[in-house]
Design brief:
- The chain folds into three domains: about 80 residues, no CATH class; about 50 residues; about 240 residues, no CATH class.
- About 50% of the residues lie in helices and about 15% in strands.
- Helix 3 crosses helix 15.
- The protein is elongated, with a radius of gyration of 29 Å.
- The two termini are about 45 Å apart.
């Protein structure tokens, strides 16, 4: 309330009209920001010296004011030239604008926000120049975003909860410069659903190729960070993943994403047949149990097997990873048979990187994905739909594996 009253009093003293420059360079907001910052710096000096400016002393003071130093800093409202007070002994160390600090609090957040939206350093530079008349070098912008890297490393090594009811794993392909050449690399992401039903990104990894060795490293890392048990892992037929997972978490159920199975199946068909093929596959994954699903696949093969034999072969080869979700009630099936929980996040990342061409190095890719993670997790405030019922069903199926 006091802040609101102070702002109202400040505005009431100003003579504003339609011609007043509010937000531009040398605008009113920028001038107010400058004045408030200098007032705060003067308050810091007063606290440091122990007396107010202009206050008379009965005896000589050990330390006194010694004019000001002009300091240029970048802020949300443009570049400010602040008069920073000095003392004769040189012991004053302001906290609002520290020594060698060139950016006010909030400026870095604005730069990171633009970077997280897929803007390049040059685009951010142009945006700041156009809106705030602030001339910021690409090197400074890179320095701001590079500050995230330490946070990324801490985040990637953070401890994890011991039990995760569901973990989704998927990958997106990025183009990254490596060793003088631009290479295609896969960014692998693991999103867990905790006991509270809320999603959380557990980790991210960047590799050129996948396989049992790579996935063993990923699963072992999750184990070392505190994960003791994963009830169900939902994946997109990742090569070598089931074997690696079962070597570390032998009790985990691996569920292949049904949506990916359907997509892969339609790749084998002509355009005119795709809709009908997808329709005829539906009885397989909506069957009441394994036996009914197998009967539906057999019926599908009788209709399409001669024309598209690879479809039935693909479903048959992956059968034991396709049908685990059929053991659960309908509500839980919808959560398990698709990796949509992670695909929606990957779609966001793809949208960010579409116009970037390629990343200059791995760290640049990690920065972008991490900032996308932070943005996504701000929205993941609610548990999955019908989660209490799903959790009860999991507790019955995986008896004794969920903490009481």
């Amino acid at each position: 309330m006091k802040q609101t009253e102070a702002i109202d009093n400040l505005i009431s003293d100003l003579k504003l009209d339609s011609g007043t420059n509010l937000f531009g360079s040398e605008g009113l907001v920028q001038q107010i920001t400058k004045r408030l910052a200098e007032k705060m710096l003067e308050a810091e000096m007063e606290h440091h010296l122990g007396y107010s400016k202009g206050e008379r002393a009965e005896a000589p003071r050990d330390n006194t004011r010694n004019g000001t130093t002009l300091k240029r800093v970048h802020s949300d409202n443009g570049t400010l030239e602040l008069e920073v007070p000095r003392d004769r002994e040189g012991t004053f160390s302001p906290q609002l604008v520290k020594k060698r600090q060139t950016r006010l609090s909030g400026f870095d957040d604005k730069v990171l926000s633009m970077y997280a939206r897929g803007m390049s350093t040059r685009e951010i530079q142009g945006h700041l120049e156009e809106l705030y008349k602030t001339n910021v070098s690409p090197e400074l912008i890179s320095k701001v975003t590079d500050a995230v890297l330490e946070e990324v490393q801490t985040w990637r090594k953070r401890p994890l909860a011991p039990v995760w009811p569901i973990v989704y794993l998927d990958a997106i392909v990025l183009r990254v410069r490596d060793g003088g050449a631009v290479r295609r690399k896969s960014a692998y992401l693991a999103i867990g659903v905790g006991l509270d039903g809320k999603k959380e990104v557990l980790g991210m990894w960047l590799e050129e190729t996948e396989g049992a060795k790579f996935w063993l490293k990923v699963i072992t890392e999750l184990k070392n960070r505190g994960v003791d048990d994963i009830l169900i892992a939902c994946v997109d037929g990742l090569k070598g993943f089931p074997e690696a997972l079962e070597s570390v978490f032998p009790m985990t159920t691996v569920q292949t994403c049904i949506v990916h199975m359907i997509r892969n199946s339609t790749r084998y068909t002509s355009w005119k047949d795709r809709r009908q093929v997808a329709k005829d596959l539906k009885p397989v994954y909506t069957a009441v149990d394994r036996e009914a699903a197998w009967a539906a696949l057999t019926a599908f093969d009788e209709t399409w097997g001669r024309q598209y034999p690879m479809i039935t072969q693909s479903w048959t080869a992956n059968w034991e990873r396709v049908v685990p979700f059929l053991e659960f009630p309908e509500g839980l099936r919808r959560i398990l048979y698709t990796t949509n929980a992670i695909e929606s996040f990957n779609a966001r990342v793809r949208k960010l990187v579409n116009g970037k061409g390629h990343f200059p190095h791995d760290d640049a890719a990690f920065k972008m994905i991490y900032l996308a993670v932070l943005a996504a997790e701000k929205k993941w405030t609610m548990p999955l739909k019908d989660w209490p019922q799903a959790l009860n069903q999991l507790a019955l199926h995986f008896e004794g594996r969920l903490p009481l």
